[in-house]
Model the fold of this input.
Amino acid sequence: MADEQRAVSLPAKPALWRRPAVRSIFFQILLVVGIGYFGYTIFQNTLNNLEQRGISTGFGFLDQEAGFGILMTLVPFDETYTYGRTFLVGLLNTLLVAGLGIFFATLIGFMMGVARLSSNWIISRLATVYIEVFRNIPLLLQILFWYFAVLRPLPGPRQSLILNDTFYLSNRGLYMPSPVYEQGFWLVMLALGVAIVASIFIARWAHKRQEATGQQFHTVLTVIGLVIGLPLLAFLVMGMPLSWDFPVLQRFNMAGGMVIIPELAALLVALSIYTGAFIAEAVRSGILAVSHGQTEAAHALGLRPGSTLRLVIIPQALRVIIPQLTSQYLNLTKNSSLATAIGYPDLVAVFAGTTLNQTGQAVEVIAMTMAVYLAISLSISMFMNWYNKRIQLVER
Amino acid sequence: MSVHTPHPDLPPPANIVGVIGWSRSNLFSTPLNTALSLFALYLIYLIVPPMINWIFLDATWVGDTREACASGTGACWVFVKVRINQFMYGFFPEAEYWRINLAFGLLVVLAIPLFIKRFKHKGRLAAFILIFYPIITFQLFSGGNFGLTHVETSKWGGLSLTLILAGVGIVASLPLGIVLALGRRSKMPIVKSVCVVFIEFWRGVPLITVLFMSSVMLPLFLPEGTNFDKLLRAMIGIALFQSAYMAEVIRGGLAAIPKGQYEAAEALGLSFWKSMGLIILPQALKLVIPGIVNTFIALFKDTTLVLIIGLFDLLAIIQQAFADPDWLGYSIEGYVFAASIFWIFCFSMSRYSMSLEKKLNTGHAR
Amino acid sequence: MKKIHVIASAVALTATLSTNAFAGATLDAVKKKGFVQCGVSIGLPGFSNADEKGNWSGLDVDVCRAVAAALFADANMVKYTPLTAKERFTALQSGEIDMLSRNTTWTLTRDSSLGLNFAGVNYYDGQGFMVTKKLGVKSALELDGASFCIQAGTTTELNLADYFRSNNMKYTPVTFDTSDETVKAFDAGRCDALTSDQSQLYALRIKLGNPDGATVLPEVISKEPLGPVTAQGDDEWYKIVRWSLFAMVNAEEMGITSGNVDAKMSSDDPNVRRLLGQEGIKGSGLGLADGWAANIIKQVGNYGESFERNVGQGSSLKIARGQNALWNKGGLQYAPPIR
Done:
């Protein structure tokens, strides 16, 4: 009763603690205090626990000698390098497998996504089967399968499958010749650089000309000619300053040349096939989102099916595809950490695995590892957002 | 007087109907299509018959020992048959299997009315399943009360552990996800940024590192002496990880609700929580059910990662069986078995989510 | 600058305060919960291995059981946490497990900067190599250029690097998380040799498709004293683990077995009487019941029994006692006297 009377008699202004602005400030202060207290407690607990148990802390361990070997390194590494170096080695291996995986998954995904919408019945069915099978099986299982089930039947190094005395395939990996750059090769690289820069300018110019006059220019052919021809010319002028280091069979293994180790191959195959299936679905939904009228209009203009797809459908579909593609790229990068299950020396296996265990500094090592993945994820998101914005401008 | 009788229609030319016509238009319409079709047929010929032979025709199905498989050239399903109980129930005591069966049977029985159109109390039933069912299941699994013997979590394993991990992940991440999603759409800058940071952090790190952290490092963060079960810690890690993904799904649903609904709720004088609980969330959650199912599928597959921290889910327990000296060399059978189980679960759930999507779409067509 | 000092001293203060509170914390916690949480290997026949029903057995498992027998008079009051080599120290440091008995090598780094205490040595081991007979290798020195399957996070990884560096040879490490995976990869031909502690090599060889096709090379390239470990900070707990192991070794030396321990109760030998808690300091020094050692022997057996049952002639591994024989039989197993 009393409340009701007050509500009628008092002015419409609510009590102080009922005002949304006041409440919001109060609530936020409460949140900040809560989180601050939570963080402080965890920090204190960790510090106490580490202290009590006599565990070393700090990042000094990064300068200590590691003393163990790593299967595959992109930068020079042996046992005498530091733990800091193992971090770099692991990081580069992660970036390698993530980069290659993104490339192949995109390739497979686009192919399969288009194939699924193909008018060819059997092709579209095959693509459907591929997508539905590989999307619904855990990635870890696929990695283990490719590694342990596909590795087994390959022959040993002495019975390698040999192609042309150049490529050797065995259960130790695929060995192939590696290039050895001799003096004067810099000119070839320079020529390649010049050719690429020139190509960009030509493409811009051709685009402008087409906008202005409608005349087309054979950009693709010119660019291919430039990028291949110019370095080739430099190569011949400098007297072919390149030789190949061929792999040679030794007592146990092949020596020399380059090698794709089976761990990398299995991880890459599994990652690209798994993620490719998701990308194919994204591509399909993207293409379906473009109204059929667009295809008909393009056909009416006399564009061939291939050109219709390339010039009309895909650019519009990309707007739908890109956000989904971004999250798939992020997933692939994070999933590459499953490498640890088959012994591919990525960041998690080398740094959060061996290094953590040899030094025992779990907090520092895991924090660094998580920070790296966060940084990679954020940069991929930022790049894709930037790209998405760029292509969004196409819409008028 | 002669009446005009129309000549009966001629049948269409043989090459545009029937098998021939169909294959002409669908398989061999252009030279390129012909080449592709032939290639695809060759590929199928290469893969499918040997696979069927290996899996079904040449496979060994009967027997209890390795010797039974010695003669067969195909798969040795005896290996799976001998260990099937372990694959399903882990190290759970054999006499207590009925508890697991009862728990999952109960879920099936409870879930059936959700699919019946005329059933009125779907919301209440769903709430019951989300809140009380987990408690019942926990009692059944863990025991210790009501005359049930206590079974330690270290004995849980196999497919039942996989299902539990995925189930707990979803149930626990749902409320957290709702709060985070609301927080991310909040107008309060601090609340919003806290939620954004939380979501982006968990979405940016791999599940392995999360599991590793929760499995071995969590006790370092807690006050001295607090310690709890390894499985529970893994579940906490999974739930936190999953809540970030859940938040993003729910945010999509919230964004899809027309602004008028928010304004109408405010006009009615409902408080924030009332307008969310009574107006916005019921609509938004219904919209995102397919999304939640998809998250569940992803989580279901991701639970295999717990093998890296030493929990015996389906995949881990199958892998462990490979090391049995009596059954060496049957890893492909094990992997194929695991793959088909996961596939059946994931595929049927994804179909369900797709059909749901279709049904919901028509409801909101404008 | 001042601020940092304040924080630092605050941290130091809380640390000292809580260190006092910490003494005996593990032991108290173990007593309160009524069982020993013991970290063991995920699966290594002879050392720690679970059967289909999830029952653990092995030489390392017996140490956990001995501690439980000493503390609770019941060797079954143990819960096992299977750990990979990578996880083991973090699990111990974080307090997830009370003790670690997982064929862990005692080294200076681990003893000093990892916050661990090694309680003794229950198996003297050394790193060796296993190769396929087909390879025709007779010595590890012939392995220049070979690739090796190793388990991640072990001393094996470091020893291998040292050995090849000091002999000026090249090698390729192929590293896996679990020993099962190393065997699988070795079996598949991914590497030429498998390297691990010698005891493990015999255990792992059974897991090969064709165990007779592989052979263990004679070289032992390192010292690997394996033993149970506790976390630093609780000396009482550490001593219980330590003396549980010593009791097993002493019992073997005195000829007390699980079979004759009851009969030995009435022995006149003062050494035996002291071990079995009939006279002397009994259990009070460790804060245990007087019959602690008798309980260990009754329920777990003496060191020799445990050895033969798990890895010796009574097992499928058939490892000879060698260095693990008692000190008076030409081996290294030597326990301080109980008096």
Remarks:
- Chain C has 13 helices and 13 strands.
- The radius of gyration of chain C is 22 Å.
- The CA atoms of residues 151 and 176 of chain C lie 5 Å apart.
